[in-house]
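// run 5 | inverse folding | seed 20
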């Protein structure tokens, strides 16, 4: 591969190779279940006008840095979505106040692997003569009042990977159950198309008033039809769940990433919902 061939197919093949072959993509416990499935990859232009739009207080706010504020001369942003394997997702109880051990381990150890992936992508770009920075790993990265200097979900939205759900997660072609990584680079890479216009286009609730399965699923009622209470989510994940998993040192919840129609797909394209807030059978 030279810089000219570093397109979305080449980047996808590179990341699929890491996910499939790196032994760190596994839980440390038990049978070492695989954490991540093959990723989706998108490329955004650093000059996309939406980067400026994110500085608006209604989007994220002035704390959010555009690509060239992270890397002077930035030309592109590579973003990827790592979906949890079905094996990890299925360990999550359908009805329970707490997540499974495999889930909370996957969240912690999966994010360690996400850092491996961010670094591997940066090295790949450097081997092709470019410079790269992963803002999520940067020393001066911070968030204030939950507003980050760099949002990986919003970057994924700009790169065409998906739109938001009312639960707050990004819904992609491979669903919402996963994590996101991104790298700002100074190579001019062909941007991927953004096949939507609206922020919530892939979530059936805002436009059609259908589904809404995530609303009653949240164990602490942090998700509402028009707003989320992030503080409730923080307290539950950081305190209650953390205390439950104290011997393992794990935390964080995942009800809003499991047992819903948008978990592994875009729901509007593949599922017809009978009525508003329908009860969906998952078997
Ligand atoms: C702060 C934070 C939290 C906070 C607040 C969550 C939130 N939604 O903001 C808390 C602690 C509650 C939280 C919880 C969780 N988080 Co969190 N969190 C973050 C963090 C650090 C920043 C999120 C952020 O940007 N907030 C800013 C506000 C403004 O975002 P917002 O209100 O949702 O944005 C709206 C506005 O921007 C609006 N809008 C208005 N005008 C415009 C204009 C434009 C152009 C656009 C695009 C949007 C827009 O649309 C958006 C949707 O409503 C990111 C990591 C990162 N650096 O990106 C991870 C991240 C969002 N979290 C993640 C995850 C997985 C979780 C959890 C599931 C916990 C877990 N197990 O890890 C839960 C539940 C997530 C959920 N359903 O929202 C993932 C999301 C993966 C996904 N599939 O989308 C991220 C991306 C981490 C990662 N690297 O993968 N998180």
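// decoded
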């Amino acid at each position: 591969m030279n810089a000219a061939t570093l397109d979305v197919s080449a980047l996808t093949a590179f990341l699929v190779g890491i996910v499939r072959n790196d032994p760190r993509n596994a839980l440390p416990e038990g049978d070492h279940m695989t954490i991540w499935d093959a990723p989706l990859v998108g490329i955004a232009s650093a000059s996309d006008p939406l980067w400026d739009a994110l500085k608006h207080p209604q989007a994220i706010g002035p704390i959010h840095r555009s690509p060239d504020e992270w890397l002077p001369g930035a030309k592109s942003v590579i973003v990827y979505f790592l979906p949890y394997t079905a094996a990890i997702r299925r360990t999550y109880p359908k009805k329970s106040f707490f997540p499974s051990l495999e889930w909370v381990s996957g969240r912690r150890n999966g994010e360690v692997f996400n850092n491996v992936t961010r670094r591997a992508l940066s090295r790949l770009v450097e081997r092709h003569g470019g410079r790269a920075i992963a803002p999520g790993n940067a020393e001066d990265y911070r968030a204030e009042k939950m507003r980050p200097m760099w949002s990986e979900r919003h970057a994924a939205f700009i790169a065409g990977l998906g739109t938001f759900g009312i639960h707050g997660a990004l819904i992609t072609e491979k669903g919402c159950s996963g994590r996101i990584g991104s790298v700002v680079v100074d190579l001019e890479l062909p941007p991927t198309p953004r096949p939507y216009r609206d922020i919530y286009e892939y979530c059936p609730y805002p436009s059609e008033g259908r589904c809404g399965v995530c609303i009653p699923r949240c164990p602490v009622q942090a998700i509402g039809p028009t707003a989320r209470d992030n503080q409730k989510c923080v307290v539950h994940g950081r305190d209650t769940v953390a205390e439950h998993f104290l011997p393992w040192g794990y935390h964080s919840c995942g009800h809003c990433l499991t047992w819903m129609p948008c978990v592994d797909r875009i729901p509007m394209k593949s599922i017809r919902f009978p009525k508003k807030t329908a009860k969906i059978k998952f078997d």
